[in-house]
C-alpha cells in the first residue's frame, strides 16, 4: 500500500459519487469513472469529499464506494478518503476502515465550532493523536467550514503533528497564504509539506507560481488540471496559461453555489463517464437555460482547444 507523504505532487482529482436516477449508488459507474480519471493522467484520487456528496451517504455506503474505488485501481494510484465527522470517534472508525482497505491517507476538515487559533491547533493535534500513524490532509476551506486557519497556526500544526503531510488549500483569496507557508519551510522553520489546491482549479497557475505542488479538486475535464500542472512543472508557463484559459469559462461555471456540481455531473454523464448526472436528494436541478449555457460553453471550449492544438 502506498502511503501519502509530504512529497505528494500533481493532481489528486476529487471524485464525484455516481447515483442512479432513483438515488441509489451506481457502483458500475464508479468503475468507469475510475478508469476515466486514470486515463486522464491524474496522480491520485480523493473520494468522499464535499463535492462527492459524502454527507448524503450512509456509513455503509461510504465504505462501499471506497472499497469499489480501491478494488478498481488495484494499487496503481493512491487514494485519499475524506473522513471528516462531528466527533473524533466516527472519524477514527472510518479512517481505520479505509486504511485497512488500502487507502493512502485521509482528509479532515475542521468542525464549524472552531472559533480561535488555539481551538484550531488543538483540534488538529487531537486528530493527529486519534489517527496514530495514519497520514492526513488538513482541509482548509473556510468558504464552507467558516473556519479560518491562519499560516502561523498551520505552521504550528506542521511542527507538532507529524502525520499532517498535506494541506488542501482552498482559502479565497489565498495566494498570500501559500507564499507565507512556503517561506516558513524555505527558512527551515517547518517541514515542507505538500500543498494541493482546490476551488475547481480557478487559480491553479497562480497557485503553482506561489509554490503549490498541484491540485486536489474536481472538474469535468481533469485533463485541464493535469496539463496545467505538467506544463508548469516543465517550465512551459505560457503553454500552461493557454491550456488554462481554454477551459476557464466552463471551470468558472462549475463554481456556482448550488448548481455547480449538477453541471459537472451533467458533463461527466454526457462524456460517458457516469450513467446519470443525478445528485442525491436534496438536490438542485439544471434548468433548460442552464443546460443551454453548458452546451454553449462546451462548444466554445472545443473550438478553442482545436485552435491551440490541445
UniProtKB/TrEMBL annotation:
MF terms (GO), sorted A to Z: 4-hydroxy-tetrahydrodipicolinate synthase activity
Keyword Lyase tagged: yes
Record InterPro entries: Aldolase_TIM (IPR013785), DapA-like (IPR002220)
Family stated for the protein in its record: Belongs to the DapA family.
Taxonomy of the source species: Bacteria, Pseudomonadati, Pseudomonadota, Alphaproteobacteria, Hyphomicrobiales
PANTHER family documented for this protein: 4-HYDROXY-2-OXOGLUTARATE ALDOLASE, MITOCHONDRIAL (PTHR12128:SF66), DIHYDRODIPICOLINATE SYNTHASE (PTHR12128)
Key words, A-Z: Lyase
Highest taxon of the lineage: Bacteria
GO cellular component, one term: cytosol
Name of this chain's protein: Dihydrodipicolinate synthase family protein
UniProt-listed SMART domains: DHDPS (SM01130)
Sites where the protein binds pyruvate: 216
Record keyword Acetylation present: no
N-terminal signal peptide: none
Amino acid at each position: 500500500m502506498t502511503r501519502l507523504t509530504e512529497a505528494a505532487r500533481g493532481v489528486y482529482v476529487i471524485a464525484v459519487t455516481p447515483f442512479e436516477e432513483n438515488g441509489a449508488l451506481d457502483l458500475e459507474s464508479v468503475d468507469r469513472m475510475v478508469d476515466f480519471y486514470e486515463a486522464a493522467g491524474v496522480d491520485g484520487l480523493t473520494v468522499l469529499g464535499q463535492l462527492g456528496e459524502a454527507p448524503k451517504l450512509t456509513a455503509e455506503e461510504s465504505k462501499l464506494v471506497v472499497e469499489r474505488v480501491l478494488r478498481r485501481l488495484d494499487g496503481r494510484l493512491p487514494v485519499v478518503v475524506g473522513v471528516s465527522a462531528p466527533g473524533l470517534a466516527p472519524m477514527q472508525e472510518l479512517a481505520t476502515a479505509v486504511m485497512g482497505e488500502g487507502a493512502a491517507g485521509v482528509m479532515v476538515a475542521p468542525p464549524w465550532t472552531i472559533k480561535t487559533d488555539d481551538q484550531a491547533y488543538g483540534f488538529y493535534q487531537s486528530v493527529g493523536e486519534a489517527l496514530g500513524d495514519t497520514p492526513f490532509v488538513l482541509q482548509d476551506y473556510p468558504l464552507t467550514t467558516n473556519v479560518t486557519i491562519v499560516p502561523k497556526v498551520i505552521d504550528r500544526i506542521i511542527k507538532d503533528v507529524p502525520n499532517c503531510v498535506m494541506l488542501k488549500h482552498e482559502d479565497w483569496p489565498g495566494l498570500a497564504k501559500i507564499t507565507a507557508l512556503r517561506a516558513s519551510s524555505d527558512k527551515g522553520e517547518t517541514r515542507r509539506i505538500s500543498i494541493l489546491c482546490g476551488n475547481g482549479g480557478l487559480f491553479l497557475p497562480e497557485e503553482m507560481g506561489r509554490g503549490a505542488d498541484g491540485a486536489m479538486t474536481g472538474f469535468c475535464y481533469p485533463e485541464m488540471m493535469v496539463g496545467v500542472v505538467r506544463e508548469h512543472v516543465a517550465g512551459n508557463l505560457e503553454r500552461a496559461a493557454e491550456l488554462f484559459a481554454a477551459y476557464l469559462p466552463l471551470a468558472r461555471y462549475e463554481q456556482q453555489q448550488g448548481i455547480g456540481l449538477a453541471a459537472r455531473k451533467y458533463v461527466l454523464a454526457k462524456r460517458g463517464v457516469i450513467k446519470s448526472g443525478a445528485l442525491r436528494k436534496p438536490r438542485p436541478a439544471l434548468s433548460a437555460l442552464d443546460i443551454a449555457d453548458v452546451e454553449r460553453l462546451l462548444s466554445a471550449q472545443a473550438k478553442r482547444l482545436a485552435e491551440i492544438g490541445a
